[in-house]
DNA sequence: ATAGGGTTAG
């Protein structure tokens, strides 16, 4: 539906709608103006309250109302409506209104164009955005710095990093428009979010020496990028360079810094930063609190998280949907699903509307506790509450059903997904493949794998792992090995987990020597064996009473600091003929540290 | 309250 709206916007532009009321043939490229354009003739139209537009139906109603007004509302009013519609994330409807406006001959302007291009960007359809720009350009409107910034953002959102960079360079080189802070930010943020942190840092450094000095927002974007790439020290370094240049960090920058440290579990450093904030009189906002609450929730410390909720209320920082969703996730992690449900109810009491994330969270909680029937009821409740299921809720529900071996219901849901134009992702395919394999349908799994490979989706290690595991469990390790050998050519490096599946299968049927060869092969391909690999091999040799071969692996494990597990250990002890001091000492070295004592 | 801006949740 999204894409269709964007495409139909272009069609309308190409069609007659766009040209209504325009003197095309006369060659006048300036916008037509109304005879009554002077302010004296314009009635006051500020009585429209755009802040009451909270959901799609409000926007629809208001649009109908504006269309039927006796005196045609100004383009400003229409732009206002488009703008609030974007704020409530109804991009397709905004584009629909844009189509209608063109059809009705409303004299759209550069602001309208920028909003429309932004909608295309947000729907990841930058091509339609370019089409809209082109047609405006023909009508004598030139895109300005805001429009180009929107396009740059759109290119990044569509993973067109090179194109975004080229456009930015062209703008600079040919002086197409004067770049400003917002455009610089779009570049730096886009580079960081697309994983190009170092080019982003280079850009910032170049800008520092020019008259386009980066501001605190630009530094924030870069700082966040450094954190997400695990460059904490560089992040601290950036913070101090920025301060030296006389720019002080604000609450967003601190929040980003705190998030980075929370990810690393460096909670002591977080405390230092929070103190630093209060010393600089920067108060924590709802996002900062949410980050801190999330850190506690991830450590399952719900008491501390609830205490923080109290503190934020005391400080008149109003908890939002994210706050409550974070708490719900924390309770679900602890398996306290009923407590999570209470949080959901409490947010409703406080006048906050749970969103699809809230439901997705509970859904996941119920499924993990194997309360699939309750999950299903909740799943049915979502559309009744006026919300739309997305890829994540479908994935969770399908996974939940499959975990109870309710395969046909899961597949039905997958079909439903397609019917509702919710696009499946890697998680969906991995779940489906895993389901097929667990149900013993390995042939179907292979053809399904073939199907998704043909769709241009790149299956990942988990995908292939699911199929290889299925093949092994169904006695088809030869097919599994073929697939394994094809992985590198598909850009996937097999890991120890995948090798272990096949090694395990070989051992299972007694082909221990063949398994041993595969282990050697895996090592020669640069994939290190892990504790599971060694334990499988050792147990297999021990089962065949080949103690000496098992002991070779014990030595290898000691060299690598890998531990053996209990059952392997007891098998070795059982087969020891004498009190072999050397062997006992060797085993002590590979023994899990907490059991040695 | 006419467009484009950095931090949080599934």
TrEMBL record:
<feature type="repeat" description="PPR">
    <location>
        <begin position="390"/>
        <end position="424"/>
    </location>
</feature>
<feature type="repeat" description="PPR">
    <location>
        <begin position="320"/>
        <end position="354"/>
    </location>
</feature>
<protein>
    <submittedName>
        <fullName>Pentatricopeptide repeat protein</fullName>
    </submittedName>
</protein>
<feature type="repeat" description="PPR">
    <location>
        <begin position="425"/>
        <end position="459"/>
    </location>
</feature>
<feature type="repeat" description="PPR">
    <location>
        <begin position="215"/>
        <end position="249"/>
    </location>
</feature>
<feature type="repeat" description="PPR">
    <location>
        <begin position="460"/>
        <end position="494"/>
    </location>
</feature>
<feature type="repeat" description="PPR">
    <location>
        <begin position="495"/>
        <end position="529"/>
    </location>
</feature>
<dbReference type="InterPro" id="IPR002885">
    <property type="entry name" value="PPR_rpt"/>
</dbReference>
<feature type="repeat" description="PPR">
    <location>
        <begin position="180"/>
        <end position="214"/>
    </location>
</feature>
<keyword id="KW-0677">Repeat</keyword>
<dbReference type="Pfam" id="PF01535">
    <property type="entry name" value="PPR"/>
</dbReference>
<feature type="repeat" description="PPR">
    <location>
        <begin position="530"/>
        <end position="564"/>
    </location>
</feature>
<feature type="repeat" description="PPR">
    <location>
        <begin position="250"/>
        <end position="284"/>
    </location>
</feature>
<dbReference type="InterPro" id="IPR011990">
    <property type="entry name" value="TPR-like_helical_dom_sf"/>
</dbReference>
<feature type="repeat" description="PPR">
    <location>
        <begin position="74"/>
        <end position="108"/>
    </location>
</feature>
<feature type="repeat" description="PPR">
    <location>
        <begin position="355"/>
        <end position="389"/>
    </location>
</feature>
<comment type="similarity">
    <text>Belongs to the PPR family. P subfamily.</text>
</comment>
<dbReference type="InterPro" id="IPR050667">
    <property type="entry name" value="PPR-containing_protein"/>
</dbReference>
<dbReference type="Pfam" id="PF13041">
    <property type="entry name" value="PPR_2"/>
</dbReference>
<dbReference type="Pfam" id="PF12854">
    <property type="entry name" value="PPR_1"/>
</dbReference>
<feature type="repeat" description="PPR">
    <location>
        <begin position="285"/>
        <end position="319"/>
    </location>
</feature>
């Amino acid at each position: 539906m999204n894409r269709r709206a964007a495409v139909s916007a272009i069609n309308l532009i190409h069609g007659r709608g766009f040209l209504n009321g325009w003197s095309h043939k006369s060659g006048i490229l300036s916008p037509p103006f109304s005879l009554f354009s002077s302010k004296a003739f314009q009635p006051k139209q500020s009585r429209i309250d755009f802040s009451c537009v909270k959901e799609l139906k409000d926007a629809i109603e208001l649009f109908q109302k504006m269309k039927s007004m006796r005196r045609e509302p100004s383009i400003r009013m229409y732009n206002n409506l488009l703008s609030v519609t974007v704020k409530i994330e109804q991009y397709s409807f905004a584009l629909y209104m844009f189509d209608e406006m063109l059809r009705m001959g409303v004299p759209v302007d550069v602001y309208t164009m920028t909003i429309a291009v932004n909608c295309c960007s947000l729907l990841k359809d930058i091509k339609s955005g370019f089409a809209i720009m082109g047609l405006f350009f023909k009508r004598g409107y030139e895109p300005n710095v805001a429009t180009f910034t929107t396009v740059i953002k759109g290119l990044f959102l569509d993973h067109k990093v090179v194109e975004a960079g080229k456009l930015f360079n062209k703008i600079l080189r040919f002086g197409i428009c004067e770049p400003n802070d917002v455009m610089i930010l779009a570049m730096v943020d886009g580079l960081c979010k697309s994983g190009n942190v170092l080019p982003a840092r280079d850009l910032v450094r170049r800008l520092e020496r020019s008259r386009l000095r980066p501001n605190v927002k630009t530094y924030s974007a870069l700082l966040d990028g450094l954190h997400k790439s695990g460059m904490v020290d560089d992040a601290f370094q950036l913070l101090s360079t920025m301060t030296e240049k006389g720019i002080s960090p604000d609450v967003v920058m601190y929040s980003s810094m705190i998030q980075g440290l929370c990810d690393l579990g460096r909670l002591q450093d977080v405390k230092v930063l929070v103190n630093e904030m209060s010393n600089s009189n920067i108060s924590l906002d709802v996002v900062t609190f949410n980050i801190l609450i999330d850190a506690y929730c991830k450590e399952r410390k719900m008491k501390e998280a609830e205490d923080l909720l109290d503190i934020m209320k005391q400080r008149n920082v109003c908890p939002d949907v994210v706050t409550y969703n974070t708490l719900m996730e924390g309770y679900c992690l602890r398996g306290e699903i009923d407590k999570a449900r209470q949080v959901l109810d409490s947010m409703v009491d406080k006048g906050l509307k749970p969103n699809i994330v809230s439901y997705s969270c509970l859904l996941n909680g119920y499924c993990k506790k194997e309360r699939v029937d309750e999950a299903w009821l909740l799943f049915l409740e979502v559309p009744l509450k006026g919300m739309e299921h997305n890829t994540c809720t479908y994935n969770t529900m399908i996974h939940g059903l499959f975990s109870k071996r309710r395969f046909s219901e899961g597949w039905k849901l997958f079909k439903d997904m397609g019917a509702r134009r919710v696009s499946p992702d890697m998680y969906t395919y991995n779940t489906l493949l895993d389901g097929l394999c667990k149900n013993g349908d390995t042939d179907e799994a292979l053809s399904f794998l073939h199907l998704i490979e043909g769709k241009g989706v790149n299956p990942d290690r988990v995908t292939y792992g699911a199929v290889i595991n299925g093949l092994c469990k169904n006695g088809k390790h030869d097919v599994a090995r073929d697939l394994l050998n094809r992985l590198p050519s598909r850009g996937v490096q097999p890991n120890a987990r995948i090798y272990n599946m096949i090694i395990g299968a070989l051992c299972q049927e007694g082909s221990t020597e063949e398994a041993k060869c595969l282990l050697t092969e895996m090592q020669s391909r640069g994939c290190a064996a892990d504790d599971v690999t060694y334990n499988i091999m050792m147990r297999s040799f021990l089962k065949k009473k080949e103690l000496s071969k098992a002991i070779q692996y014990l030595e290898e494990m000691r060299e690598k600091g890998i531990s053996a597990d209990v059952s392997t250990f007891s098998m070795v002890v059982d087969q020891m003929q004498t009190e072999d001091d050397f062997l006992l000492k060797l085993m002590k070295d590979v023994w899990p540290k907490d059991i040695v004592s």
